[in-house]
Structures are given as structure tokens and as C-alpha cells.
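Moderator note: this is an archived Q&A kept for reference. The question asked for a predicted structure of one protein chain; the sequence and the answer are reproduced below.
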Amino acid sequence: MHKNKTLSADAAVAKIKNGSRVFIGSGCGEPQHLIHAMVRNHNIQDVMIFQMLSFTLAQYLKDEHFFKRFALKLFFVTQPMQQAAFEGKIDYIPAYLSQIPYFFRSNQIGIDVILLQISPPDRFGIASLGVSVDVTLQAVKSAKMVIAQVNPKMPRTHGDGFIHIDDIDYIVPFEEDILVNTIEPVDEKVAKRIAMYVNELIDDGNTLQVGYGNIPYAILKYIDNKNDLGIHTHMISDAFIPLFEKGIINNKKKNFMVDRAVTTFCMGSRVAYDYIDNNIQFYFGTADFVNTPGIIGRNDNFISISSALEVDLTGQVCSDSVGRQFFSGTGDQSNFIRGATLSKGGISIIALPSTAKNGQVSRIVGNLSAGAGVATLRADVNFVITEYGIAQLKGKSIYQRVVELTQIAHPAFREELIEAAKKNHYIFADQLPPLSEDLIFLEDYKSQIELKNGKSMLVRPLLPSDEIAYRNFFYSLKEETIYLRFFHSITIFSRKMAQEHWANMDYRHFISLIGLVRNRGNNEVMALGSYAAYDNSDYNDCEKWAEVAFVVREDFQGQGIAVYLMNELEKIASKNGYIGFYASVLAENRKMVRVFQKCYPNLKSDIKDNEIDVWMRFEPATHIVDQKIGVLK
């Protein structure tokens, strides 16, 4: 180490001139020893401090003399800084993380002095920026004076964050613990349910970005059933490490920067710091490289997972403030979402709990709070996930977005959200709200079937958000198919008809299952199977029977779909206390009769004119149907 450059912290910070613009290394890379020395030196006056993630300076926020000497300009409002920001004591600079290096490089934000922390230099005089490369590297290049705290506890990371001792003006050797950033506890039940839905959208071999926030990191432990995941993200935390250790994250299936987890900084505990230390699996790059959409999009099958404070019914996302109070920063959420759009096979997810303040406030809102900033535009948002399900917004109208988002809001707020949408003229005045009930039990009704034609079909309950897909399905059917299903010709399937169908479903006594098959980038309805409580006072015990009906698109008939739907519906009906199915079929609809006979060889039938009444008991039993009064014997 260069002895002529080596000073004590007090001697080094004494080099800072009054009126200087000082950048301080961010997050867990903060040089705490240098920061305390600078604040202690009362000869230092009128200094403007720029920082991305600030923690150490929070210790001085109650000191009235501190703000007379220092002006804080933060690119991100950390939790310890939130109250001071609300009181106007510190200044927030909204900016994409990826843009900040340009501000330094172009002198739009001039840097006179940088205080940073580095690992000990090797025998060639090369040290590492360690846990914080992000915007710090460019600040080092742009600053007129570089003061570095050399800390043996700073991990040595690979990538862009190497600095030669010759590029440092003053060196301060001082060993201290690296700052620790712990994830705040979350409602594990909520996190697990959100993760369940996120899991549906993640495939083996995908490359992930996980945004800053308690929920995104909390759900990582619930995706340990995947294989060969890759990482291209802005921050590594402790939550990633178990997935590396289990080999779930191995970066082997990436097509861009293969075998490397790409990131810009690390915030966690010694667990993470020891794992990344001299670990060639990690590439720590600058924010203007890692977080740029064009670079992100080079990863095929890229999935961006980030969070939000609020999402309005049109899909606008607020992630840095609640009303006028700043809670975080702009970050690079939009860049990763746009990068996912550029990725071949990429998608983006906004994951958030449905409520805040112990369930008193909905995070899905009719309008963003007054003063709230839009972090991500409605046109950029793809999937939104809460513990109540998945809303897919990309390419959908405002009306569809309202239905999708209301459907995943907390049940207690769904009705008022529909009313807010009507007030805002987003939806029709006669729109019915989704059920005000937690429908988590519907997850048990989902299944997958591989068809004879080689395609895969997802089977799940019909939801309010399926209205347009349901109508498209109806209009894709031939006239003969419609006649055989409804017993008469129907040429119009109106929005009102579709809405009344799902509005009457309680998923116990009336349920419809749909079969979805992917056609390019869209899931299309290919089949519909329903049962409803049988309502006929002419028959005894009719309340124990459910009337069943099916319709399958012509090009998917003969694939065994109706039989499969029949079996799935029987499972659901049995759970809800029914003992059998009743169906009324046109005599000419021989295909459907054969389906019933295949499923229930002991069925009983009654031919009336051109119709066949069919009775199908679930469990094997010897019985007959009295054709006059319908009594089972």
C-alpha cells in the first residue's frame, strides 16, 4: 500500500473543502468510518452530499447542526430517511439507477470528492469495490478527489468493480463490519400464496430479476422447485444464497453471460458477503450496463419480478411513494419491465399484497393517492399478482383491466372498486362485481392434460376476467355445435349473457370449467364444461343432483376433453355434496351420449320426444330412475 497516500480518517476528510459536492459509496458499501469522521469535523461546512442508498447518516438526522452543514441529495429514500424526507430535511432525486452514471460522466451532477470503501488491494495494487459497483465506479472516475477506506471485511467481487491504488488519492486503512441489511418480516401466508401464483409463470431455465422489496425477496424461498435458473438483477440479497447452494440457480441455461449471475450491488448479511467473496459465479457490473433494457433483453425467457405500493385500476404502478410521502426510489423497475418485453419469451410481474395497514387499505385502488408518482406506465405493465390471483393486463382494454385487477383485490374491497370504476367511467354502469369471497379453494380445481394432438390444455374455473375469451369461444363454434349444446340456434352471445353466466357462479353449486390451449402468445378457450344445481320440483331429491353440460370446439373434438372435464367436474360436485349428474341431450347428439356412457356405464336414461334425460350416479350402485316421479330405488 502506498505509504504517502495513507492517512487517518480525520486527516483524509480534512482535505474536503467547504462547498464541496461529495458522493458517498452506497448501501452496505458505505464507508462508515469515513462518514463519521467527516461529520465530526466541524470545519467542514456547506457540503452537498449525494448518495443512492443511505443508512449511516440517519444517525445524525436529529442533530440540528447537521443540516446547517450538510445538504443531502438522495436517489433513493431508505426506511431510516423516510420521515426526514417527508419533513423536507433531505432532497429526493427521482432517477433511474442506470442513468446516474451518465449524470456524473456528463457533469450534470458534478462530484468533487468521493468517499468509498474497498477491499485490500492485491499484489498488483488492484482492489475491489466489493458489494457496491452500481453507480460508484463512475463516481470514482468522475470525482476530483478519491478517499478510500480499505476494509479487510469487504468481499472481493468479480466484474467491473476493480480499481487500481494509483487511482486513489488518499487511503484510510480501517477494519469494521460491513453494514447489514435485513429483510423486514412479512406475512408468510400472504408471501406463500403470492409465490404460488408467481411459480405458475416461472419455467425451468428462466433468467430472473428480483426487485428491491420485502415481498419479492420473501417469495424466493418458495420457488425452490425449479431447475437451472439464471440471474440478471440489480441486487443480490441473502434470499438468493440458498438457491445457489441447492443448485437451483446455476446460470447454465442462460444465453447471455452464461454461467454468471449478473448484478450491480449486494445488500444482506455476512452470509451473502462470504458467498460472493472471490466467487467467479457473480459478475458485478455498473448500473448503466446491467440495468439497461437493451442489455436485459438479450436474456431469453427473462422474468422481471418487482413490487409496488399501489396499482390503480388502469394498471398504473406507484412504487416510490404513498401519496406525497416518499418511501423508496424510482430504481430501475421500468427498465427491467421493458427489458423483459424485449426478451424472447420474457414477461414481467408486479407482485404485491392486496392490502396494507393490517388489511385496512387496499393496494389495488380506483385512483392513485394524491401526489403519488407513476413509476411504471400502464402500457408497460404485464402481470400483476396478489395473494388472490393473477391479473394479465398487457394488450387489454381499461374495462378488462378493471375486471382483472378487481378480481385479485382483497374480497372486502371488490365491490367498492367496481363502484369507483363506474364513477371514473372505466366500465359499464351495469357491471357486476366479482364474488366478495376468498376463492383460494379454486386452486384445487386447476389441472393440466396432454391432448392426443400433442398440445397441452390447462383446465380451470371460468372467471369474470374470461368474459371476452368466453365470447370469442362461443363465436368460434359452428352453428350445429351451438344447436346441439343449447337446443336452439343462438346467433348473439352478448356481454350481458356472458356476465350473467359468471355472476351466478358460486363455484360450489354452479361452476364452469374451461379448457385453455396456447395459440402463439395467447391462451384460447377450446372447451367448456359446467354443472349447476338441478332445479326440478317434479323429482324427489333433485337437490342432490347437478345438471351437467359440455361444449368442445370442433377442431378439438375427439381428444378426450369432454371425458376429462366430466371427471374433473365430478370431483368438484362430490366435494359439494352431490351424488350424481343429470343431463338433457338431443337424441341426435350421439357423441355426447357416448361420452356419458363411457364415464357412467350404469347410467339410466329416459327418451322424451327428441330429447334424452340421462341420470349418472357417481359411485357404483344398483338403481333405476322412476320415469314418472324420478325416485331412485
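Archived answer notes: DSSP finds 20 helices and 34 strands in the chain.
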